[in-house]
Design brief:
heterodimer; A: mainly beta; 11-stranded mixed sheet; 5 helices; B: 718 residues; alpha+beta; 6-stranded mixed sheet; 4-stranded antiparallel sheet
Chain lengths: 414, 718
């Protein structure tokens, strides 16, 4: 296999701050506050890892396409460092032809001696609404949860504005509440799919407020929000003055929680042998808070057999955000260019709009994407079994910017 | 319901975004405009449905003669005096019977059409001329205003007897597919970088099309032209005027500009485009400016947060004849820019206590100053004049506040810096309807009956708000948002609550429908005491958090939650059950008024009590062991110890023991956490968790905060 996959874990030494792309102005009361998004964008994590790789090769900052210094260590390297970095890591936003591309960003937890990846709870599963509501009001405990699948069929006989007569819905008068923004380990995910009872402590959440941590009191926390005030000193008198203070709401990860990204290294594009390891720590996110980097164990994620016969339905669940042309989200659209079939509909929370910096245009640009956990339904039009190798979620991908880790998914039968 | 309805289909409609759209506001007027426009678009949709042979089920209307009926409101007759509601009161969703051939896609297009029509007016009057040399500007405008980018319109049409009809829109929300196209799809001219983002509506480009990093000069020039054009359009001249409509540091998107500038359109344009002239009491001809080619007086300017925070201080000064000369001297010295004078003098004074009293000319001039003129920090930052020496203004301010201090005392020398946002929402009304045994058979009828009852409440909200010196931002179905001075907000909340609870009783007496006779009309509230410089988005977010998360979810509904939002963030938070004997307005305001007569609550004392005795009032958070500690609200020993501590600190003798003991009992209620009783449903297990325990001791801090910022004189009513 010419592609090897690695997994790198970032362990922050302080809070982390990932800007949301909203305007920020220290001198404007309406814009002095930065709220960190979390988990961060794919590019943010990939960018940090690229920088860590490059630093370990001697890169000292700046545009590596313009470095003309020759690395001569051990007398092995004939190429300039610049060319090396371009070949392996790509140029700016252009990494399609680089040797290193990226898989999804994962939250990770340490349990039973090892680190395990977390997956968003699929949006097509929910828990009993009245039971959850009672728990929310503090009246009951919620020691265990059983997830039920939102049904998706044509029984509604209702026309909706999105052109579908089908919507993911609950039957039998048991209304279901999806748990958006919650995560589970792979084993728990499989338990959800099979309808088993799950202990609530096996479900993870991130709290942005004291209320959220109370609401999830029987779940397991991944992070909390920490507020800090930043001071830029006045140039004239070197003291803090009005208009030069700002506030940051950063993210503090709990113990035994880390954030990780998968990396795919294409050996055919990496002719020369070098020790391609990242440096051990790197500034991550805004304000330059450091995180240490460690290589983790790569997990192979075979989802099992997924049947694709004529007239059967199956679905996919995103394991990382996906950038998909909205025109493709019309019911009945053919997705054969993605190796899939006729799109039927979806169960998903709101799309995410993330601000990022374009090194091509030299300016900020926002991108809208579908969230991890979103489930898309398809109707098979022929008997075409899925390639079992492709059931590895690191390789299954759709939509744009797959090289940055967007659009990863797992396949499931309904 | 008519016979015709039996053979028709059911339409369910909703338009959004709601929360984020309303929160994206930098001024009171933006806050109002956001909810008004949403309500207007919903009204337009309903009118279209009726026009196409449909019948609105909820919200409920009497008939087409009902002044709030969409068709009545949107009758674009030629009368100049076609008045309508000032605040948004139509919810963002409705249900209607429609003919079987009803085209819901056309309904969606109709709503977009209305929005585009209003936006075009704003473009024609305020943007077209200054942007005539900027082709990209119009391109961005069209992209942002056009269908599909901003408004999220959902509908469902189906058999009205469908067993799931009550949940159609819930099902629809399981698939959130609104995905606005990215502006990067616009082809920028060669060499152009992506423009800056709007400073009001998140995620949209500002319309100049320039990047502030690379084309700062062109960007500034563009916005200067817009501001100059507005000054000429609205004030007849651009010289010597500050820009109040679009401030110096604001760069806005097309969507934000429509929200900001439509209230400045001429009255006749408002009437033609919106369909009515928004008016506080639209059943009679309003007094004042009725010129149809002038901006409409009632929506043009709204009190700033600074003005709201200072209102009782201003009121006290306006009523003091001895300060008349000082007022005149101050106004003459600060030389407020003409635009501020024009703005305030041509607008309706919207705060009741400042409007209804007879005042001298000087007092009237003072009451119509811009809110920034009452705060030293705002004067120092040059907020009220572009060409005057700020040092001289500050000197005049110091002289004036010295005179006020001599008259009223040190505590009243300057205004308090806080106003209050009140946010209320009915508790579980929909859930109670759904739980009724006959719901499946009779759901639409029941919803209609409840809507009818809620209309009674809406009819009174504006008057109650006004009576308590508030500004109503919106009131629709069972929720409302309003701004108040901190001295009035708790009374207003209590008044509104008691009116809302009365709805159930009145309704039962009328016996409209047995199925909903048992519905309990309860309401929860959030009150945010916010610094006037805080961003509206943050205050609105805090209010939503307090209401939904703290008062409703965490405290079990029928609760009121309070917080103090300082510029650095939340400084105190308190919640209590609202159905018991304790009324927060009485608890807090009575103690504040006692303190006004005789200072009792020094900061140090309150902090000491909190620190020393606070832990007695904390419930256990030990969920594992399910331990609940009883709160010591009636503990005589603790009462005696705290009373003794209080008396010793305030040098009181034994004769005052009984009074002090009563006082301490009141403090107990501020220190203890009072959750709502659990809902009366059966326990599914015996493993009930203790009610959420967390320190609710902030009641004392909120009391201290109110004492420090209270500016209503003891002998002054409204």
């Amino acid at each position: 296999m010419s592609i090897i996959t690695r997994n790198y874990r970032f362990d922050p030494v302080d809070i982390l701050v990932f800007r949301d792309g909203m305007p920020f102005n220290q001198n404007d009361h309406g814009q002095v506050r930065m709220h960190s998004i979390f988990p961060p964008n794919q590019e943010t994590m990939a960018g940090a890892l690229r920088a860590a790789y490059a630093r370990n090769q001697g890169w000292l900052g700046g545009n590596w396409a313009r470095i003309d210094r020759i690395k001569t260590a051990a007398g092995k390297d004939k190429k300039s460092l610049s060319q090396y970095l371009l070949d392996i890591l790509g140029n700016g936003q252009n990494i399609q032809n680089a040797a290193i591309t990226f898989g999804p960003v994962h939250l990770m937890v340490r349990a039973e001696g090892g680190w395990g990846k977390l997956y968003s709870v699929p949006h097509d599963f929910g828990i009993n609404e009245s039971k959850y509501s009672s728990y929310k009001q503090g009246n009951k405990t919620l020691d265990t949860i059983t997830f039920s699948r939102l049904d998706f069929d044509v029984s509604l006989k209702v026309e909706f504005d999105n052109g579908s007569e089908e919507q993911a819905h609950s039957k039998n008068e048991v209304y279901l509440t999806p748990l958006y923004n919650h995560w589970v380990t792979k084993n728990t995910l499989l338990s959800i799919f099979s309808g088993q009872e799950i202990e609530t402590k096996q479900i993870y959440y991130g709290a942005k407020s004291e209320y959220e941590s109370w609401l999830n009191r029987q779940f397991t926390p991944l992070w909390s929000e920490e507020s800090r005030t930043g001071i830029q000193r006045c140039h004239n008198n070197h003291t803090a003055v009005e208009g030069m203070l700002y506030q940051v709401n950063g993210i503090r990860l709990e113990n035994d929680v880390a954030i990780a990204i998968d990396v795919n290294l294409d050996l055919t594009k990496c002719a020369e042998t070098r020790d391609w390891e990242p440096c051990s720590s790197i500034p991550l996110g805004a304000e330059g808070h450091f995180a240490t980097i460690e290589e983790g164990n790569y997990e192979y994620n075979e989802s099992g057999t997924v049947v694709r016969n004529t007239n059967t339905q199956y679905c996919i669940t995103l394991t990382s955000p996906a950038i998909i042309n909205p025109a493709k989200m019309k019911p009945g659209t053919d997705w054969s260019d993605e190796g899939l079939d006729k799109f039927k509909g979806a169960a998903m929370n709101r799309s995410l709009t993330r601000g990022s910096w374009s090194s091509i245009t030299g300016s900020q640009q926002n991108e809208t994407m579908f969230p991890a956990g979103a489930t898309l339904y398809f109707a098979a039009s022929s008997n075409r079994p899925f390639d079992s190798v492709k059931l590895d979620e690191a390789l299954l991908a759709l939509g744009e910017k797959q090289e940055w880790g967007y659009g990863r998914y797992i396949l499931r039968n309904l | 319901m008519t016979e015709k309805a039996v053979t028709t289909k059911l339409l369910q409609f909703s338009i959004g975004p709601v929360q984020s759209w309303i929160s994206q506001a930098r001024r009171t007027q933006d806050l109002w405009a956001g909810s008004f426009l949403l309500s207007w678009l919903s009204t337009s949709a309903m009118a279209h449905v009726v026009e196409k042979g449909g019948e609105i089920i909820t919200p409920w209307y009497d008939d087409k003669e009902d002044p709030f009926h969409p068709v009545t409101l949107l009758t674009r007759n030629s009368k100049n005096t076609h008045y309508g509601p000032l605040t948004g009161r139509v919810p963002n969703h409705f249900k209607a019977y429609v003919p079987s051939d009803f085209d819901a896609h056309a309904l969606k297009n109709h709503v977009y059409g209305q929005w585009v029509m209003l936006a075009e007016k704003v473009w024609q009057y305020f943007i077209k001329e200054p942007a005539k040399n900027n082709a990209l500007c119009r391109k961005i405008w069209d992209f942002q205003i056009g269908p599909g980018l901003f408004w999220e319109i959902n509908w469902a049409v189906g058999d009205k007897d469908d067993q799931h009809q009550a949940r159609w829109m819930d099902f629809r929300k399981n698939w959130r597919d609104h995905m606005p196209p990215a502006e990067t799809e616009l082809d920028l001219p060669p060499g152009m970088r992506n423009p800056d983002y709007c400073t009001m509506v998140q995620g949209l480009w500002e319309i100049s099309g320039y990047s502030g990093i690379f084309r700062k000069e062109e960007q500034s020039d563009f916005w200067e032209k817009i501001r100059d054009h507005l000054k000429i359009q609205l004030h007849g001249s651009k010289t010597g005027l500050a820009s109040i409509e679009i401030r110096q540091d604001e760069r806005l998107s097309a969507v934000a500009l429509v929200k900001r500038l439509f209230p400045y359109l001429q009255a006749k344009v408002i009437r033609e485009t919106i369909g009515w002239l928004p008016c506080p009491s639209f059943d009679k001809t309003p007094e004042g400016n009725n010129q149809q080619d002038e901006p409409w007086q009632f929506i043009r300017y709204w009190p700033s947060t600074a003005y709201m925070a200072a209102s009782h201080w201003v009121n006290s000064i306006c009523h003091c004849d001895e300060l008349e000369n000082d007022i005149t001297a101050y106004i003459d010295a600060i030389k407020v820019d003409r635009v501020y004078q024009v703005a305030e003098n041509t607008s309706e004074i919207k705060i009741c206590c400042l409007r209804k009293s007879e005042k001298s000319t000087a007092a009237k001039r003072f009451a119509t100053l811009d809110g920034s003129a009452f705060f030293a920090s705002s004067i120092a930052s040059g907020a009220i004049a572009t060409s005057t020496n700020e040092k001289e203004q500050l000197k005049a301010y110091a002289n004036f506040t010295q005179a006020v201090k001599q008259k009223f005392g040190k505590a009243y020398a300057a205004p308090g810096s806080y106003y209050a946002m009140l946010y209320m929402d009915g508790d579980n009304i929909g859930k109670q309807i759904r739980q009724n045994d006959n719901y499946e058979l009779n759901s639409l009828k029941m919803e209609q009956e409840v809507s009818k009852i809620l209309n009674n409440f809406m009819d009174e909200v504006a008057d109650i708000t006004d009576k308590h010196n508030g500004i109503l931002i919106y009131a629709g179905a069972d929720d409302l948002m309003a701004l108040f001075p901190i001295e009035d907000v708790l009374n207003a909340a209590e008044d509104l609550r008691s009116r809302f609870e009365g709805l159930g009783k009145n309704f039962t007496a009328e016996k409209i429908d047995d199925d909903i006779a048992d519905i309990a009309f309860k309401i929860s509230a959030a009150v945010v005491f916010s610094h006037y410089k805080n961003h509206y988005g943050d205050v609105r977010k805090e209010a939503a958090y307090l209401l939904e998360d703290i008062a409703k979810d965490r405290n079990g509904r029928n609760s009121i939650a309070l917080s103090v939002l300082k510029p650095g963030g939340r400084a105190a938070q308190w919640v209590c059950y609202w159905g018991g004997e304790d009324r927060p307005d009485e608890l807090f305001y009575t103690l504040v008024e006692k303190n006004l007569k005789k200072p009792l609550f020094a900061s140090r004392l309150l902090y000491l009590l909190n620190e020393r005795y606070g832990d007695f009032f904390v419930k256990s958070q030990d969920i594992k062991n399910k331990v609940i500690l009883e709160l010591p609200v009636n503990d005589p020993e603790l009462l005696a110890i705290m009373t003794a501590e209080f008396m010793s600190y305030t040098d009181q003798d034994n004769s005052q023991y009984a009074d002090t003991s009563e006082l301490i009992k009141n403090l107990f209620h501020l220190m203890a956490h009072m959750p709502a009783p659990p809902e009366g449903e059966e326990e599914e297990s015996n493993n009930a968790a203790p009610s959420p325990g967390y320190r609710m001791l902030d009641g004392l801090y909120i009391l201290r905060f109110l004492i420090e910022n209270w500016r209503k004189l003891p002998d002054r009513g409204n």
